[in-house]
Design goal:
This protein is mostly helical. Helices cover 69% and strands 0% of the residues. The chain has four helices and no strands.
């Protein structure tokens, strides 16, 4: 998993919304990433881990100790 993907799922796990994640990544992590790119990356990550929903993705990532 790429650094930006890991940051996205970590921010999601902390309860941030996609709009907030985009702003936080630009401000804190020096990564300019749009909301649509975040949504696309989450779609790819969900496929990678066979998760139908973001909630299920969070559970799988927690179980695998990724977040």
């Amino acid at each position: 998993m790429e650094k930006r993907d890991l940051l996205i799922v970590q921010y999601l796990a902390k309860g941030f919304k996609i709009v907030e994640i985009s702003e936080l990544m630009t401000k804190n992590d020096s990564l300019k990433i749009s909301e649509s790119m975040i949504k696309k990356r989450l779609r790819v990550i969900r496929k990678q881990f066979n998760a139908a929903t973001l909630f299920q993705l969070g559970a799988v990532l927690k179980e695998n100790k990724i977040i």
